[in-house]
Design brief:
The chain is built from 18 helices and 11 strands. It has helices at about 20-25, 40-50, 65-75, 85-95, 110-115, 135-140, 155-170, 180-185, 210-215, 220, 230-240, 240-255, 295-300, 315-320, 335-345, 345-365, 370-385, 410-435, and strands at about 30-35, 55-60, 80-85, 105, 125, 145-150, 170-175, 195-200, 260-265, 270-280, 285.
C-alpha cells in the first residue's frame, strides 16, 4: 500500500511523514490510546472500534474533567490506563469505577504524554481540544507511534517540529479532520501534478450574514451548527471561520503546500469534504455523508476500508451542490490566520492562543462575537511590534538522528515546547487584558 501514500520529496506535495510500517498494518489487535475520549471525536472513535470487534485493544482513554462519561467508557472497554486533568478529577473518577476494575489513573500534561507513549500502544488518536493537545501529540511522535490526528492545533503550533520528529523516530501522522482526510484520500498515489488544495467550509450558522448583523449574535445562535454536531469551541470557530483558518495552516504543515495554493470555498451542503486540483485542470473531490466516523475509520483502519455503520451518500437526496467564496469582511478570522501563516515567527501561536482566549470569553458572555477577530488582530499586532524580523519560533532540530543519548531529542523538543507555551500564555493574558479594558 505504500504506493498509495501521498507523494513525497518534491515541490508539489511533501507529506509530513512516511507511511506506517508493514508490521503496524498487520498488527492484530491494534493497541489503541484515545486522548480526548469523551469529546465527539473520541466517542465516534470508540463507536468505530465497537463496529470492528477484535480489530483494536483499547489500552488508554483520557479526558480533562468529564469523569462520569470517561468512567462509563472505561467500564465498557476496560483499558488498563486512564488519564485526567488533575488529582481531583482522578479521585472522582476512581470513585465511579466498579470494584474489581482498578486501572492506573494518570494526571496532567505529564499523564497525557505518558499515555501517548505507552510501549504497548501502536496507535494514538489525538483528539484533545485546542493547544492542550500538543503535549500528547508530540509525546506520541517522540515514541514513534501512528498518530491519528484530530487536534489540528498541534500542527498550527508546531507543525515543523512534528515533521522533524517524525523524520527521526518514524512516527506517522494520519489526518482525521474531514477536510484533510478528504485531501489525503484524493492525493493517494499522487505528487508532482498537484496544483491547488481546496478546503470546503459549511459557512457555519451565520453564512450570508453581514458584519453589522454579526454584532448582535448570541452564544446559543453561534453554537447552532447547521450540519455537524461538535463541541462548543470548534462550533464557535466554525461560526467565525477561524476553524478554516486553522485548517489552512494544518494543510500547509501536512502537505508542504504554500498557503497561496490552499483555497477555501464555502459549501453549505457539507457533501464535498475537500478537493484537489491537478496541473491539467482536472479536479478530484472526496464526497460522503456528514459523519465523522468515516474519516476516523479511514485513519484507524488504514489501509483497510470497512463499513462502520455510516449510511452511504444518496446523491439524489443530496440535491444541488453549491460553492462560493468566503466573505472575509464579515468573517475576518480566516484572513488573520492566513496572514499569521504567511509571516510566521510565532504568529500562528499568537493567533491560536488569542482565538482560544477570545472564544472562552465569548462563551462566558464577557465579550461580543465580533470581539473575537478584534482581539486576535490586536494580539498579532502587539507581537509584531515587539518581535521584529520574524525569526522562527522553533528552528529545525539539531539533535542528530543517530544521537548516542536517547533522551537528547526529547530534551530539545521540551525546550521548543516551553518556548511555545510562554508565547501562548502571554497572548492569552493580553486578550484577557483587552477584554477587561
Amino acid at each position: 500500500m505504500a504506493e498509495l501514500w501521498p507523494g513525497q520529496g518534491g515541490p508539489a506535495i511533501d507529506y509530513i511523514s512516511g507511511p506506517p510500517s508493514e508490521r503496524w498494518r498487520h498488527e492484530s489487535p491494534r493497541g489503541l490510546v484515545i486522548l480526548g475520549a469523551t469529546g465527539s471525536i473520541g466517542r465516534n472513535a470508540l463507536a468505530v472500534a465497537e463496529a470492528r470487534p477484535g480489530f483494536f485493544r483499547v489500552l488508554g482513554l483520557a479526558c480533562a474533567r468529564n469523569v462520569r462519561r470517561l468512567a462509563e467508557q472505561a467500564q465498557r472497554h476496560r483499558p488498563p490506563f486512564l488519564a485526567v486533568l488533575d488529582e481531583t478529577a482522578a479521585a472522582a473518577l476512581a470513585a465511579l469505577l466498579p470494584s474489581g476494575y482498578r486501572p492506573r489513573i494518570l494526571t496532567g500534561r505529564e499523564g497525557y504524554a505518558q499515555l501517548a507513549a505507552l510501549p504497548e500502544a501502536s496507535t494514538v488518536l489525538s483528539a484533545q481540544v485546542g493547544a492542550a493537545g500538543l503535549a500528547g501529540t508530540l509525546a506520541a511522535a517522540l515514541a514513534g507511534k501512528v498518530i491519528c490526528l484530530a487536534n489540528k492545533e498541534s500542527l498550527v503550533l508546531a507543525g515543523g517540529l512534528a515533521r522533524d520528529i517524525c523524520a527521526r523516530t518514524g512516527a506517522v501522522i494520519l489526518p482525521v479532520d474531514s477536510e484533510h482526510n478528504a485531501i489525503f484520500q484524493c492525493l493517494a498515489g499522487r505528487g508532482q501534478e498537484v496544483a491547488v488544495l481546496t478546503l470546503t467550509a459549511s459557512g457555519g450558522p451565520f453564512r450570508g450574514k453581514s458584519a453589522a448583523e454579526l454584532r448582535q449574535v448570541t452564544v446559543e445562535q453561534a453554537l447552532r451548527h447547521p450540519n455537524w454536531s461538535m463541541g462548543a469551541k470548534i462550533s464557535i470557530d466554525s461560526a467565525t471561520l477561524m476553524n478554516k483558518g486553522l485548517e489552512v495552516a494544518e494543510a500547509f504543515q501536512l502537505y508542504g503546500v504554500p498557503g497561496e495554493r490552499i483555497r477555501v470555498l464555502v459549501h453549505p451542503q457539507s457533501i464535498v469534504h475537500s478537493m484537489v486540483e491537478l496541473n491539467d485542470g482536472s479536479l478530484l473531490a472526496q464526497m460522503g455523508t456528514a459523519d465523522m466516523r468515516m474519516a476516523i475509520a479511514h485513519c484507524l483502519l488504514w489501509p483497510h476500508c470497512a463499513p462502520v455503520g455510516v449510511p452511504p451518500l444518496d446523491l439524489v437526496a443530496a440535491g444541488r451542490l453549491s460553492f462560493h467564496e468566503p466573505d472575509l469582511e464579515a468573517f475576518p478570522c480566516l484572513g488573520l490566520a492566513r496572514a499569521a501563516l504567511a509571516r510566521r515567527g510565532g504568529l500562528c501561536v499568537v493567533m491560536n492562543a488569542a482565538n482560544e482566549a477570545a472564544v472562552e470569553l465569548f462563551l462566558q458572555g464577557q465579550c461580543a462575537f465580533t470581539d473575537i477577530p478584534r482581539f486576535i488582530a490586536a494580539a498579532l499586532e502587539a507581537h509584531e511590534a515587539t518581535t521584529p524580523g520574524h525569526a522562527p519560533l522553533c528552528p529545525p532540530l539539531t539533535t542528530p538522528r543517530d544521537a548516542p543519548d536517547p533522551l537528547a531529542l526529547e530534551r530539545e523538543v521540551h525546550i521548543m515546547v516551553e518556548r511555545i507555551e510562554r508565547l501562548d500564555q502571554h497572548s492569552r493574558a493580553l486578550v484577557r487584558e483587552l477584554a477587561r479594558g
